[in-house]
Amino acid sequence: MSELFNLQLSDEFVPTLELVKRFIEKEIAPLEEEFHHTPNKDDIWTLSDRQSEIIEGLKAKAREQGLWNFFLPDWNGEGVSNLDYAYLAQEMGKSFIAPEVFNCAAPDTGNMEVLAKYGSPEQQKQWLEPLLAGEIRSAYAMTEPNIASSDAKNISTTAVLENGEWVINGEKFYISGAGDSRCAIMIVMVQTNPDPDAPMYLRQSQILVPMDNPGVEVLGPMHVFGNPDAPHGHMHLKFDNCRVPESNILLGEGRGFEISQGRLGPGRIHHCMRALGQAELALELMIKRGLSREAFGKPLIKLGGNFDLVANSRIEIDSCRLMVLQAAKAMDLLGNKEARIYISAIKAMVPKITGEIIDRAIQMYGGTGVSQWTPLASMYTGNRTLRLADGPDEVHRMVVARAEIQKYS
Amino acid sequence: MSELFNLQLSDEFVPTLELVKRFIEKEIAPLEEEFHHTPNKDDIWTLSDRQSEIIEGLKAKAREQGLWNFFLPDWNGEGVSNLDYAYLAQEMGKSFIAPEVFNCAAPDTGNMEVLAKYGSPEQQKQWLEPLLAGEIRSAYAMTEPNIASSDAKNISTTAVLENGEWVINGEKFYISGAGDSRCAIMIVMVQTNPDPDAPMYLRQSQILVPMDNPGVEVLGPMHVFGNPDAPHGHMHLKFDNCRVPESNILLGEGRGFEISQGRLGPGRIHHCMRALGQAELALELMIKRGLSREAFGKPLIKLGGNFDLVANSRIEIDSCRLMVLQAAKAMDLLGNKEARIYISAIKAMVPKITGEIIDRAIQMYGGTGVSQWTPLASMYTGNRTLRLADGPDEVHRMVVARAEIQKYS
Amino acid sequence: MSELFNLQLSDEFVPTLELVKRFIEKEIAPLEEEFHHTPNKDDIWTLSDRQSEIIEGLKAKAREQGLWNFFLPDWNGEGVSNLDYAYLAQEMGKSFIAPEVFNCAAPDTGNMEVLAKYGSPEQQKQWLEPLLAGEIRSAYAMTEPNIASSDAKNISTTAVLENGEWVINGEKFYISGAGDSRCAIMIVMVQTNPDPDAPMYLRQSQILVPMDNPGVEVLGPMHVFGNPDAPHGHMHLKFDNCRVPESNILLGEGRGFEISQGRLGPGRIHHCMRALGQAELALELMIKRGLSREAFGKPLIKLGGNFDLVANSRIEIDSCRLMVLQAAKAMDLLGNKEARIYISAIKAMVPKITGEIIDRAIQMYGGTGVSQWTPLASMYTGNRTLRLADGPDEVHRMVVARAEIQKYS
Amino acid sequence: MSELFNLQLSDEFVPTLELVKRFIEKEIAPLEEEFHHTPNKDDIWTLSDRQSEIIEGLKAKAREQGLWNFFLPDWNGEGVSNLDYAYLAQEMGKSFIAPEVFNCAAPDTGNMEVLAKYGSPEQQKQWLEPLLAGEIRSAYAMTEPNIASSDAKNISTTAVLENGEWVINGEKFYISGAGDSRCAIMIVMVQTNPDPDAPMYLRQSQILVPMDNPGVEVLGPMHVFGNPDAPHGHMHLKFDNCRVPESNILLGEGRGFEISQGRLGPGRIHHCMRALGQAELALELMIKRGLSREAFGKPLIKLGGNFDLVANSRIEIDSCRLMVLQAAKAMDLLGNKEARIYISAIKAMVPKITGEIIDRAIQMYGGTGVSQWTPLASMYTGNRTLRLADGPDEVHRMVVARAEIQKYS
C-alpha cells in the first residue's frame, strides 16, 4: 500500500508543531530546572507548592492556546492522526514535564483512550472528563511481580463477582503514576475466568478501581535504578479483597485482552516518539560538550572516533524517526491491530538505539554525564527501563519474526 | 521542509513498478541461471553467443514495453524522479542482469547522465545516443592505485594540452566495465592544472577517451576476492601518452570536480537502492532455507537466535529503505549538491547493514551459502566491495558528522 | 617474554582463595542485605549502629583470619603479587561490602600504596597505620569539574607555598569516599608550578589534606544516576585558601604526576578484577532467573536468543579474566609503568563487556531487574560509571593504539 | 584446576618457536608470492613444476631441521603438547603454505591423528607412513549436501557389507583437499546401521577409501566465494556402489561418531590458532598501510576512528590468543572430550573476531584490499568459511550455553 510511505505532517499541523516547539522552548524550558529542584521535602508523593504553581500555570497556558489533549486520534473531533501526533510527541520528548503540560502524559493518555473508546457514559462522566481536563491523574495496573507478564495468560490477580461487586485479590507492581497523590483512578487487569481450559484470551477483564479504595494497599515504591521516581512513582500494590461495583468493569467480562490490545499500540508508539526527542537532545548535548571541552590540544569532538559517533547517531536517529512515523501512519491506515508488527518493530528498535546514543553523550561528558548536572543520567535509566516496559525487546522481535516467517510458510 | 517526508511512489509509476517486478519474475529470472552458466570459454571478456542472445533478447523486449532508461531524471521528458527510480532500482537489485536489461546498469547510467547534462551536441550524438540505445557500453576512470582517491585533490593522472590534443599519462585501476568487449568509451578524471597553489577543486578535468585509443593499455583485471568478474571486469589501465582531441573534454578545463559532484550522488544512491533489493533477497533465502532444513528435531529457523536475526533483518531493511527513499526525495527537492549529506548517510549505512544480512543468510545455508549453488557468495563479495566503491564508509561518515557539528559551531 | 603467559595462582594462595570465597559466602553474604537495608536515616553519611556493628564485626573476624590488606604487593612482606590478588579481587567483586571487610576497598588501597611507597615516616605513622588497621578511611581528590581531567596537564587547582604552608585553591568533584564520616584524610592533586612553559609533567604535586581542615568545603554530593551513593559519597569539594603544613607534600614538589602514574595502574586493575566478579554474578542471576520463569510454555532461558547470550557471556567473561590476569602478571614482571599498555587494554575492555552482561541479566529479569529487589540495578549504574572513572575508555584505547602503531613507526 | 591458567610455552619449545618463525621469514616468505603466481595452467589440480620445486624444496629443508609433524601430541614421542603446538600454529597461520611445508596442513593432520590413534598396523603402514613422510595427501569426507550436517545423526551416505566389502552410496561435498592430484586417501563418514531406533551415535562408521577407487566420482569443485581454491579443492563427490575391503573400516563398525569426536577438537583448535596468525598479519598490514597513505593532510591511521580500530584489534587478538592457549591447555590436561566446551568457545569466538579484523584492514586499503595485490581478500573469504567449517558458530555457542546452564540445573 503505497500510501504507507507518505509520512508528511499534514498541512494543518505545521503551525501547531511550531507552536508546540516554541511553547516548550519559551514557556517550559525556563522553568524545568526549578521544577525538578523544588520537591516537597515532607511528602515526596505530593508536589510542592512551587511545583504545583509551575505545572498548573503551564497547563492553563497550554490549554488556553489549544495545545491540549493532542493524543486522542478520534474523540470528539479534537484529535490528531497518529502521524501528526508523532511529530508533536517527538518535541515533547525533549522535556520531562512537557507531556503533562499538554495533558499528553502516560499512562493518562492510554487510560483516556480506553475510557473514550470503551467506557460507559457514566464511567466517562466520572473519570474521563476530569482526566481530559487535567484535574486528576490515573494509573494502569497490569504487570505482576511473580509471573512473566509478557505472556498475558499468566495474569494471576483475580476478580470474582460477589453480590454485585467485583472482589479483587492479587499483587501488581511497577504501576506507574500510582504514587502521585493526584492519582485518583486505576484500570486493573484481572483474571475473571479461572478455568484453565477456557479460551486463553477471554479469561481476563479490566476493572476501574479508585485509588482510595480501602482494599488497595500500597506496599511501597519500586525503585528504578535506585530512585523512587517521585512523585510519579512505580508502585507495588496489593489488592486485598478489594471490592468495587460490578459496573466498574470496562466493556464486559472477558474482554480485558481485547482492550489491552487496542491500548498498547499507542502507548508503545508514544514512548518511541518521545524517545526520539531524547535522542535528539542527547546528540545535541554530546556535540555541544565536545565543542566546549579540550584535551590534548583539541576540542573533544575532534578526538578519536567521535566523528563516527556523531555520524552514526545522526543516521540512527533519522532511521528511527522514519520508522516511527511509518508505524504511526500504519496505525492511521490499518488500525492498531494490523499495525502491531510495525509497532513491535519500533519498540524493539528505538529504545535500544536511543540508549546507545545517550550512552555516547554520557561518555563525552565524563563524570558530569552521570551526575545531577545534566539530564543525561535520568534519560539513561529511563530509557533503559523502556526496553522492558510494555513488553521486553525480545517479545517484540518475536512478533516481527513470526510475521516475516509467516510470509513463506 | 515537511515534503521531505512524503516518500510515496507517484501514482503514475505504480503500474510501472508492477511491470518491472513482473518482467524480472517472468522474463529475466527464468534465464538468469543459464546466462551465468554459459560464459564464453575462449574469451572471458566477450559474451558467448548464448549470453548475447539472452541479454539482447531481454533488452529488446524491455525496450518494447517502455521499461528502458528509467534512471535519467530530467532528460527528454523520459525520465523519472529519483524517488520513483528508487522503487524501481530496488526491484532490479534482486537480479544481477536486470539493470542491464533495462539499460540502467552502472557505470553507464552515470556516464549517460553526465553526457546528457554536460556533453556537447557532438559528444551526445557520438556517445550518448548509442548508450541510450543500449548499443555500446562505457566506463568511468577515476580511482588510482597509488593514492588515497577518496581525497580528490590526490588525482595524479595528468592531461596536458599539446597541439590541440590532450596527452594523458598515468594509471587508473578498478575501472569497472572496462573489461567488457562492448565497452567503447571511457570518461577519465585527470589533473589538468599542475600548480599546487591553484584552487584545489579547479585543477581536475574529465575527458572522453575511446577504449580503442592506442594510448590506453589494459594492464590486467583487478580481482575482487579472487574473481576477475568477467566479462564486466574492473580493469587496471595505463595511459601512456594517450592522445585525444581537445574537444573531448567535458564541460571545460578545471571542471572535473564539479562534474563528479553531480555524478556521484546518483551513482551512490543507485548502489544503495540495488543493495536493498539484495538484502530482501538474502532475507527471503535465509527464511526459506531455515524452514526447509532440520537439525536437532526442528527447522533451523526455530533454533537459537534465528528469530532475532529475522526480526533484526526485517527492521534494518525497512529502516534502510526509508532512508534511501528520503535521500532520493532530497535529491528531487534540494538538488544533488544539497542532498549530499543524505546520500553520504545512506552510503555509510546501507551496504554495511546489507552485508550483515547477507552474512546471516550464508550462516543459515552452511557451506552451500559460500558456494556457486546460491547467489549469496557473489552478493557477499559484491556488497563488501560497495563499502569501498564511491568513497569508503569512513569518508561518508565524516561528511555526515561535519554537517551535524556545523549546526552548533 | 614467555613467563607473561603463566597466569596460574601461586600454590601458597590456593588455600587463601578458598578461605576468601568461603568467608564471603558464609560470613558476609548472610548479612549483606541487612547492611544495605539499615541505613542511618538521620545522617546518610554516617553508618547506622547496626551497619557499624555488621561491618566492624566482619572486619575483626577477617583480620583475625589473616584475610586483611591483601592488596599491598610489596609492603612489609604481608603482600601478595598482583596476579594472586587478581584471583582474590574477583571474588570480592561479588559482594558490595567484601572489599571493605578485607580492608581492600578503593580508594583506601591506592592511598595506602602511595603512602607505603612515597610517604615519609611521619606521614606513614599518622595516616598509613590507621588505614592499614581499618580505623579510618580516606579519599583521593584528582578530578575537577571544569576541565577534561583525562589530560593531566589540565589540572587547575593550585597550591602555593606561603610561610611554610601550602595554600590550596580550587574545586574537585567525584571525590569518592569523601562523604563517609569516617573519611579522615585526602590526597589532593594540585598544580604547584603555574609556569605554562615548565615541563608539563613536572608542574603537579600531591598533598595530604585532612578532611576536617577548615579550608575544605563540601559543596555537596555528586549523584550517580540519581543516587548520592551514601555513605560513601562522591563529593564536590571546594578548597578555599585551604592551608596545610609544607611537610604534607608527598615525595616532593613537582612529583604529583609521577605518583599518580604509579597509583593508577593498580587502581584500574582492581576495578577490573572486581568487575569480573560482578559479571560472574550477573550471569549466574540471569541463568537462575531464566530457569525459574516461564512464558509461552517454556523456561525463559530456552526462548529466542537466550542461549546465545549465555554462551557469549561465558566466552566474554573468560576472555576478560585471562586478560586481567595477564595484566596483573605484567605488573608483577614489568612494573606498573611498563605494564600500562596491558592495564589500559583491560580498562577499555572489561567494564564495557561487564556492562553488557549485566544489561542482559536485567533484560531476563524484566522490571525486577531495575528494581531494589536485585543487585543488578546498582551493578549496572556502578559499572557504567567505571567506564569514566580513572580515565574514559577513549583515552585507554588511545594508549593501546599508540603503542601498537609505534611498533611500525 | 589452577594449572589450566599456566599457558606458558614449555622451555624446550622456546628455541623451536624461534626456528619456526625464522624459517617462515627467511625460507618461506621469499617464495610465497612466486608459489601463488605460477599455477599449472593446463591442470589446475596439479602443481606446476615450479610449484612442486618450491614446496618440495621447502619441505625437505624443514624436515631436515626437524621442523616437521609438530601436530601429533602423543605419537612416537615426536609430538608436542597442544599448548606448545598452539604457539607454533599461530606462526604458521601467517603464511598460506607454511602448514604444508611443516607437514602440518589440514586435513592431513586430523587424518594422521586418527590413523595413529585408531588405525590397524596395516592401515598405518599403507597410509599413515607416507602421510607422515609428506609423500601423499588425504581428505576427510563428512559433510553432505542435502542435510544439516551439524547434526551427526543426519548422515545419509550408507555403507553396507556385501561379500567382505563395504558398498558405499551417497554424496559428500566440501571435501577439502580432494582436488589435489596428490590426494591418495580419504576417510569417509558413513551410516552403517539403517535402523532409526538404534542408538543414534552408534549408527555411523568411518571407512578408508582410496581416491582412485572407481566408485568415487568427482562431480566437481565446490566454489568458495567464486573460487575453486585449486589445487587444494573442496570437492563434490558421489559414491556410486563404491566397494572397499571390509578391513578398511577404522576402529570398528558403529564407532564413527566416537572417532569424529576425538578428531574434531584438534582440527577446530588448529584452525583457530592459524586464524590468530592471520589476525596478527591483518593488523600489521592495516597499520603499515595506514601509516603510508595520506588523505586530508594526514596519514590515514590518524583519521577518524582508526585509532580505536587498532586498539580494539590488539585487545581482541590478545583475548583470542589467551583463550586459544587455554583451550589447548585444557586438551592437554583434560583430554579432547572434556575440553570440548573450551574448544567450542574458541571456535565460536575466534573466526568471528578474526574476520572483523581482516575486514578493518581491507577498509584501510580501499580497493586494493579486495584485490589480488594483498593476501587480505583470500584471508577474508577463507576466514568467513571457517565460521561454517567444523560446525557453524551457532552450534558451538549452543554447546557452551548448555554446559553453562547445566551448572544451575
Topology of this protein?
The structure is a homotetramer of 409-residue chains.
Chain A: H1 13-37, H2 49-64, H3 82-92, H4 98-101, H5 108-118, H6 121-132, E1 137-141, E2 158-162, E3 165-176, E4 183-191, E5 204-210, E6 216-221, E7 234-245, H7 256-292, E8 294-295, E9 298-299, H8 306-338, H9 340-365, H10 376-386, H11 393-406
Helix pairs in contact in A: 1-2, 1-3, 3-7, 3-8, 5-6, 5-7, 7-8, 7-9, 7-10, 8-9, 9-10, 9-11
How would you describe the overall organization of this protein?
4 copies of one chain form a homotetramer. With 409 residues, chain A is α+β, with helices and mostly antiparallel strands. Chain A folds into 3 domains: 2-132, Butyryl-Coa Dehydrogenase, subunit A, domain 1 (Orthogonal Bundle), CATH 1.10.540; 137-250, Butyryl-CoA Dehydrogenase, subunit A, domain 2 (Beta Barrel), CATH 2.40.110.10; 257-406, Butyryl-CoA Dehydrogenase, subunit A, domain 3 (Up-down Bundle), CATH 1.20.140. Chain A is 49% helix and 15% strand. Chain A is built from 11 helices and 9 strands. The first copy, chain A, has helices at residues 13-37, 49-64, 82-92, 98-101, 108-118, 121-132, 256-292, 306-338, 340-365, 376-386, 393-406; strands at 137-141, 158-162, 165-176, 183-191, 204-210, 216-221, 234-245, 294-295, 298-299. In chain A, the strands form 3 sheets. Chain A has a 4-stranded antiparallel beta sheet, with no helix packed on it. In chain A, strand 8 and strand 9 form a beta hairpin. In chain A, helix 5 (108-118) packs antiparallel against helix 6 (121-132), helix 8 runs antiparallel to helix 9 and helix 9 (340-365) runs antiparallel to helix 10. The radius of gyration of chain A is 22 Å and the shape is globular. The two termini of chain A are 22 Å apart. The model of chain A has no long low-confidence stretch (mean pLDDT 93). The interface between A and C is large, with 49 and 49 residues.
